[in-house]
Automatic annotation (TrEMBL):
Keywords: Heme, Iron, Membrane, Metal-binding, Monooxygenase, Oxidoreductase, Transmembrane, Transmembrane helix. This is Uncharacterized protein. Its main location: membrane. The lineage of its organism: Eukaryota, Viridiplantae, Streptophyta, Embryophyta, Tracheophyta. Pfam families: p450. The chain crosses the membrane at residues 12-31. Belongs to the cytochrome P450 family. It comes from Rehmannia glutinosa (Chinese foxglove). It is found in: Membrane. PROSITE patterns: CYTOCHROME_P450 (PS00086).
Length: 505
C-alpha cells in the first residue's frame, strides 16, 4: 500500500511541476499577460464579426457596446484585433498624440482589385509614396486657391441643377423631385468638371459609370470579406460570388477609366481657369520621366477613383442630410431663407458671413456624420494608450457617431440644434475632437474646403430660389429615415421634396 502511495506521489509531483510550467508559459504567450482594453464576449473563430459584418447600423451597435465596455474597446474580427474608439478624448490620443503610430490603413483583399493594389491616396500604406501622392493631390486640386478657381463651375452647375428642378417638377404637374438623385448627379458633374475638365454624365456610358461607382463600387468597399479576418475561410468569397462581383466591378471601372485617360491623351490639354485640369497634370508626370515623380496609368486611375468616391459620394450625402433636416425643421429652413432672400448673387464673401447656414451644416455633420466609422487605421507598432497595450497590426475604428452623441461633450446630443454652434468656436477641421466628421491628423480628409464650399453655395442658392416642402404635406417627423451604411451613410429611400419657385434663376 505504502508503495502505491509513494508511486502516486512520484507521479503527481512531476505532473504538478509540468502544470505550473505550462501555466507560466501560457502567461508568457503574446497577448495573455497584457493589459488589454475591455472586450465584449466573442464567438469562437469568428470573434465579434457578427457585430460588424453586414449590419447597416454597426455604428449604433458599437455605440451601445461602448456604453457598457468603455471608450476604448477591443473587438476581434476573426483573429484580427480591432480597437473601437468612442470618445473625443480617446480619439485625440489616437489621431493627435499617437498619429504617427496610427497613420496606416488596413489592406483588404478587395482593395487590391478595386483600388489598383492600393495605389490611391486613401488606402495606400503610410510612407514616402503616400506623402508624395497626397501632396500632388492637394496641390493640384484641393488648395483654397484651386477651390476658389472652381467657383465658376459651381455657379454654372448649380444653375443647371436649379433649371432641372423646375423642369422635373413641371413635368410631374408641380410634384416632388428626387433630391437624392439630383444631388448625386450635381456633385458628380461639379467634381468631374473641376478635376477632369469635362462632364461625363452627358453620355450613356458616363451615366452608367456614375451608377456603378455610387452603388456597387461603394458597396464592395464596405463589404467585409471573411478571408481578410479568418484566412482559412477565404474560399467562402469564391463560393458566395463576392470575388466574381469584385472582378466584374473592377473591370467595368477600369474600362471606363482607360477611356477617360485615352481621351485626355488624344485631346491636347486645354488650359482651364488658372491652369490645366488634374488628369492632364497627372499625364504630364506620366510622360515626363525627369520630374522625379514616377506615375503610371494605374496610379492615375486610382487617383481618379479617390476624387470620385471620396469626393462625390460624401458631398452629396451631406447635401441630402442637410435638406432632410431642413424639411423636418421648417423654422430652421425659414431662418436661412431670410438670410439669403435679399442677396442678388451669392458671393464667397456673402457665404463667409452666413453664420447660421454654417451652423446648420456643422450640426448636420454632428447629427449625421456621413462616415460614422471614418476610414479605419492600423497600428504600425506596439503602443500604450491610456494604460492599455495595443499591439502592432490592430485595426482602429473611430466611432464618430458615438463621439457626436456623447453627453459629456454635447448638451442634449439627441436634438438637432444648429444654434449650439453660433457662439462656439468648435469646427470640423480636425482640431476639435468632439467633431471630426472629416477625421484628423496626417490621414485626415484633404477635401474639406472643396466639399464645404460646394455645399454652402448650392444650399444657399436652392433656398434662395425655391420654397421647399415634403410631398403631400407629410409632417417632418413622419419621414422615413432608414439609412444604409456604405463607406458613407445614406438614406435607403430617396429624399423627395416639392419645390415652388420664388424668384427667377
Ligand atoms: C462632405 C464631404 C467629405 C467627407 C465627410 C469626407 C470624409 C473623409 C474622412 C472621414 C476621411 C478619413 C479621415 C481619417 O482617416 O482621419 C477622408 C479621407 C479622404 N478624403 Fe474625404 N471627405 C469628404 C470630401 C472629400 C473630397 C471632396 C475629396 C477630394 C476630392 C476627398 C478626398 C479624400 C481623400 C483622398 C482621403 C484620404 C486621405 C488619406 O488617407 O491620407 N474627400 N475623408
Amino acid at each position: 500500500m505504502e508503495d502505491e502511495i509513494h508511486e502516486v506521489q512520484t507521479l503527481i509531483f512531476p505532473a504538478l511541476v509540468c502544470l505550473i510550467l505550462f501555466l507560466f508559459w501560457l502567461c508568457k504567450l503574446p497577448g495573455t499577460n497584457k493589459n488589454l482594453p475591455p472586450s465584449p464576449p466573442k464567438l469562437p473563430i469568428f470573434g465579434n464579426l457578427h457585430q460588424l459584418a453586414g449590419s447597416s447600423s454597426s455604428h449604433h451597435t458599437l455605440h451601445s457596446l461602448a456604453q457598457k465596455h468603455g471608450p476604448l474597446m477591443l473587438l476581434h474580427l476573426g483573429s484580427v484585433p480591432v480597437l473601437i474608439v468612442s470618445s473625443a478624448d480617446a480619439a485625440h490620443e489616437i489621431m493627435r498624440t499617437h498619429d504617427l503610430t496610427f497613420c496606416d490603413r488596413p489592406k483588404y483583399k478587395a482593395y487590391n482589385k478595386l483600388l489598383y493594389n492600393c495605389k490611391d491616396v486613401s488606402v495606400s500604406p503610410y510612407g514616402e509614396y503616400w506623402r508624395q501622392l497626397k501632396s500632388i493631390f492637394v496641390l493640384h486640386l484641393l488648395t483654397n486657391k484651386r477651390v476658389q478657381s472652381f467657383r465658376y463651375i459651381r455657379e454654372q452647375e448649380t444653375t443647371i441643377f436649379a433649371k432641372r428642378i423646375v423642369q422635373e417638377s413641371a413635368s410631374s404637374g408641380g410634384g416632388p423631385v428626387s433630391l437624392s438623385q439630383m444631388f448625386s448627379e450635381f456633385t458628380y458633374d461639379v467634381i468631374c468638371r473641376s478635376a477632369f475638365g469635362r462632364k461625363y454624365s452627358d453620355s450613356e456610358n458616363g451615366k452608367k459609370f456614375r451608377k456603378l461607382i455610387m452603388t456597387e463600387f461603394v458597396d464592395l468597399l464596405r463589404t467585409l470579406s471573411i478571408g481578410d479576418f479568418v484566412p482559412w475561410l477565404s474560399w467562402i468569397s469564391r463560393v458566395n460570388g463576392l470575388d466574381k462581383r469584385v472582378d466584374k466591378v473592377a473591370k467595368g471601372v477600369d474600362d471606363f477609366l482607360e477611356g477617360v485617360i485615352q481621351q485626355h491623351m488624344e485631346t491636347p490639354p486645354k488650359p482651364m481657369f488658372d491652369g490645366e485640369n488634374f488628369v492632364d497634370i497627372m499625364l504630364q508626370f506620366y510622360n515626363d520621366h525627369t520630374s522625379g515623380v514616377s506615375i503610371d496609368k494605374d496610379i492615375i486611375k486610382a487617383l481618379i477613383l479617390d476624387v470620385l468616391v471620396a469626393g462625390t459620394h460624401s458631398t452629396s450625402i451631406v447635401l441630402e442630410r442637410v435638406m432632410t433636416q431642413l424639411l423636418q425643421h421648417p423654422t430652421v429652413m425659414k431662418k436661412i431663407r431670410d438670410i439669403v432672400k435679399d442677396k442678388h448673387d451669392i458671393t464667397d464673401d456673402d457665404l463667409e458671413k452666413m453664420h447660421y447656414l454654417k451652423a446648420v451644416i456643422k450640426e448636420t455633420l454632428r447629427y449625421h456624420p456621413p462616415n460614422p466609422l471614418l476610414i479605419p487605421r492600423v497600428a504600425r507598432r506596439d503602443v500604450n494608450i491610456k494604460g492599455y497595450n495595443i499591439s502592432t497590426g490592430t485595426i482602429v475604428m473611430t466611432n464618430v457617431f458615438a463621439i457626436c452623441r456623447d453627453p459629456t461633450s454635447w448638451d442634449e446630443p439627441e436634438k438637432f440644434q444648429p444654434e449650439r454652434f453660433l457662439n462656439s468656436s468648435i469646427d470640423f477641421k480636425g482640431l476639435d475632437f468632439e467633431l471630426i466628421p472629416f477625421g484628423s491628423g496626417r490621414r485626415g480628409c484633404p477635401g474639406i474646403a472643396f466639399s464645404v464650399t460646394t455645399i454652402e453655395y448650392v444650399l444657399a442658392f436652392l433656398l434662395q430660389k425655391f420654397n421647399w416642402k415634403l410631398p403631400d404635406g407629410t409632417p417632418g417627423h413622419d419621414m422615413d429615415m432608414s439609412e444604409t451604411l456604405g463607406v458613407t451613410l445614406c438614406r435607403v429611400h430617396p429624399l423627395l421634396a416639392v419645390p415652388s419657385q420664388i424668384c427667377t434663376l
